[in-house]
Amino acid sequence: MSDLPALRRPTSVRLGVLGFLAAMTFVLYLDRLCIGQAAPLIQRELGISDTWMGVVFSAFSLSYVLFEVPTGRWGDRFGSRGVLTRIVVWWSCFTALTGAASGLAMLLAIRFLFGAGEAGALPNSARVLKAWFPESTRGKAQGIITTAMMAGGAVAPPISQALINALGWRWTFASFGLLGLTWAALFHAWFRDDPELHPAVNDAERRLIAEGRTKPAAAALDGGDEIGGGARAHGHEPIPWRLTLTNRNIWLLGVAMLTMSAIYTMLGSWYPKYLQAARGATADDSSWLASMVLGAGAAGCLLGGVLTDWMVKVTGSRRWGRTAQSVAGAGLTAACLFASLRTDSVLLASVLVAIACFGVQVQVPAWWASATEVGGRHVGALFGLMNMVGNVGGIVSPIFLGRFVDVMKARGYSGRDQWDPGLFVYVGVAILGLALWSLIDPTRGVGGEKGRGAA
To answer: CATH homologous superfamily of domain 12-437?
Structure first.
C-alpha cells in the first residue's frame, strides 16, 4: 500500500525532454554566434571586407529562411525524433568545417549549409513541446528553452576567445562541432515523439500532459519515431494555405520576429567588432562585454517565459497576457539603444545595450506561445513560416551594417563616427516592433476562431 501514492504521482520524463531541448538550443546558439568573436581574425586572415563579412553572416540566415518551412513540415509528417537528430548532425559537421575555410567562397558555402542544418531546430522544438507539455505550462517551458538558447549565445564570445587564444580560430570551430554530435547520439537513443510510447512515462504523467487537449489536437501530433513511419501510419491534413495567407496574425507575428531578429543578429554578429573598432576595447574585453549583452538577453527569455503564463492567468486574457510584455520590451529596447549612443563610456554603453537586448528577448517566449496558438495543428510548418518571415531581419541586418560601415569608411569616417549612425537605424526597428505587437491577437488562429479567455 505504501507504493500506491508513488504510482499516482506523475513521472518526470517530460522534464528530461525539456532538458534535451534546452541543451540543443544552447549548442545551437553557441555554434551560431561563435563566429562573431572570430570575425576580426577571419577577416584579416582571409582578406574579407566588412561588406562581405556581412554577406557571410547573412548566408546563414538566408538558408535558414529557405529551409525552415520544409524542415518544420518534416517534423509534422514524420515525427521530430529522426528529424532533429539529422538536423543537429548536419549543422555540427558544418560548424566544424567553418575552421577549414580557405577563402570567401568556401566560407559562404559552409555558412549557407550550416544555416540549412539549423533551420528546422526551433519549429521541431515547438512541435515537441506541444506533444509533451500541457498548454498551462508551455509558456514557461518555452521560456526555459529560449533562455538556454540565449545562454549559449551569451557564453559564446568568452568561450570562443579563450579557445581562439589557446587553439586558434580554426580549431575552435572543430571543438564546437563535437558538442552537437554527442547530443544527437544521446537524444536519438532516449527520445520518443509520443509520450504514450516512452517506456518511462506512467499513466499519471500521460494524463497531466493531456490536460486541456482535445482528441483531434492530440491526434494531429501523432507521428512515427523514424522518418517515413508517421505519415504512413497516421497521415496529416494538408495546410490550409488560403486561411493561412489571409490570417493577419501570421504576418504580424512574422514581421514582429523580423524586428527582434534584426536587432539580435546585429548584436550577435557585429557587436564584438563594434566594441573593438568603434569603442577601442581589446579582443578579450569585447568578449566579456558582448557576453554581458547576450547574457541579459538570456535573462529576458527566462523572465519572459514565466511572465507570459502569469499574465494570462492574472489578466484572464490570452491576447494581452501574451502581448503586453512584448510591447513594453520593444519600448525598452528602443530607449536603451538610443541612450547607449549618447554616452562615451564603453561600460555604460554596453550596460545600456544589455538592457536593450533584455527588452528584445523578453518578447521571445511570448512570441513562441503566440505562434504555437496561431499555428494550431500545423504548428511545425506554420511556426516555420512565421519564423522564416522573421529571419528576413537576420538576412538584411548584417549586410546593412557591414555595407554601411564600409561606405562611411570610404567617406573618411572612422571609429564611432563610422559605426554609430548605422546603429541609430535599430532604434527605429524597435519602435516598429512595438507598433506590431500592439496589433497582434494570438487568440485568432488560422481558422479564425476566437479562443477561450480572449479579450
So the answer is: MFS general substrate transporter like domains (1.20.1250.20)
